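The material for today's practical consists of a large collection of protein records. Getting from the letters to the tokens is the skill we practise here. To make this concrete, we reproduce a full record directly below:
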Amino acid sequence: MFWHRISLMDNLNNAWLIAIYPLVSAALIMFCTHKSRTISRSLSIGAVALGLIHSLIIFFNTSASEVFETNFTWIKAGNFHLDMGCIIDPLAITMLLTVNLVSLLVQIYTHGYMDEDEGYTRFYSYLSLFTFSMLGLVISTNLFQMYFFWELVGVCSFLLIGFWWFKPSAAHACKKAFVVNRVGDAGFLAGLVLLYNFTKDYWISNSDTATLAFSKLKTAAEWAVFSNNLELTGLVSLTAIGLLIFMGAAAKSAQFPLHIWLPDAMEGPTPISALIHAATMVAAGVYLVARVFPILSIPGAEALNIIAWVGGITAIFAATIAFSQRDIKKALAYSTCSQLGYMVMAAGLGAPVIAMFHLVTHAMFKAMLFLGSGSVILGCHHEQDMNEMGGLRKHMPITAITFLIGTLSIAGFPMMAGFWSKDMIIAEAWHVSQPLFWIATITAFMTAFYMFRIYFKTFEGEYRGHAHPHEQPFSVTVPLMVLAIPSIILGFWGSPFLNFSFQNYLDQHYHSHMAVGEAPLDFFLKELSEPFGYLPFLAFLIGTAFAYLVYVQGIQVQGKPVNEWFREKFALVYKCSLNKWYIDEIYNFVVGIFMSIFRWTYKIFERWIIEGLLINGLAWRGSEAIGEVLKTQQSGKVQNYVLIMLGAVTLAVACVIF
């Protein structure tokens, strides 16, 4: 036991190495092994595998009550200090396992997907750097450190989304992602600075604690409210600070109206689409909300209510767009926006543990769905239009089966991972906000419909394309099969059948509605008989059945297939959905107005004031006028110069004396 504890403490003290492994891998690939595909691939995959093993050792050897935190001073100026460190608690361990597992499988998959790409080793170096950034964010002990890695995640996403920089669409997409996230990050930084401004005396008096440390964030915020005149609501208040910090989360997690970058991020290679959408960049926003939840939930602050509605609106809004998308990756991208809306809504409803539960289950089946779409794209010779697919189940059976598992899970098929996590969010909405409950339930119907639309159009019926589809090698299909397992069974970790173990792991004070001694099956059936239990299930059944009737049976209305009839009868609605409700165009119009004003003010200020008045006016004409005056004094007569000198000396002496 003694040696066991020493070994455990070594693993905890060295937990920061989990993030360093991929950083070392990225550096070695960039500067040393970029000529060798085999060595570069092995370094990148090995680094993440090592991090996963290290994370598993910590997970199996620590209890839910244990929190390990270590810090060192990074910057110090007077009483101000910034710290860097490593925190290991249940929330961090959960994210370490999720990020490392998904990243490992994505990197194995990358070998098969990018095998013919000239940038093969460069892509692996970017993946390693991206993984390092996300892991550094996860183990951050304070908001300042998290912001540092937050920005690094943004830089890595820019590199990966724009990996095929020679494609104009990819170049545009990476710039769009970068700019939109800067808008959110500006809010995050403003909230961070405001929070520090109101709590700085607390951190100065507690100099042994990292500034803005998550472990003391609630205590510091309460001190600011009761001792430093920080209002709970108002223009400059705890609510405003919470919403500013949430702006960063909203941008990273693609919440309305900062969601516009995520679908365009599909221009990057499919492996990075899977990594961004499953376990890294978009997960960072939900993780941030979970970390700062203690200050968002202080009684009297109103940020959580707004956050819940932002999540609910995003969930249903993105689902309406997913209905009509033809590109398989973009349809999945809007599905991600919608599911992230569920997570944010759960956090806003006061259930960050359930939000994290859905984050973990979603990471598994969404990674599998994106990797499955990549397998389809490769098998169809880089075709992404679902109208050019169909019947692929016969040609790609492994991809089809795993894609069906992911579809069932996200749609809410009973007992699968997505069923437990998503339906818990809907149940939470029933108890807290009836309007959000109905939004979540309608979104559940829409999710089942558009996900089975994707599956049926891709894998059922007859092949409509012109390629020769074929199944992919094991480097592509094995990650799909591995991810299929948690997509089926992972939800039981947070189900009544395992006594809500996941929720209790993250929050020892988690309270379920299951009575002490109550049989899990009886509790499950009782919950299923409630409106918040059977309505989402009915939504799943109706959405799935409707998709089957439309895309497999081909039912008709007035002699036309129902989808064609709908496109004609409701042309305006369909067109708005297909064009993403013209949000991009609205942004372009608004930005265009500001740019016109900027150009106009630039012309006035730069050309008329700077160039006209100051440079050509005062500087040029003024110096010319002064020169005209001074040149009259240049007579060439020595006696005049002597007279001026004597006068100046006399004046100077007079000033000294008097």
Remarks:
- The first strand starts at residue 68 and ends at 77.
- DSSP finds 27 helices and four strands in the chain.
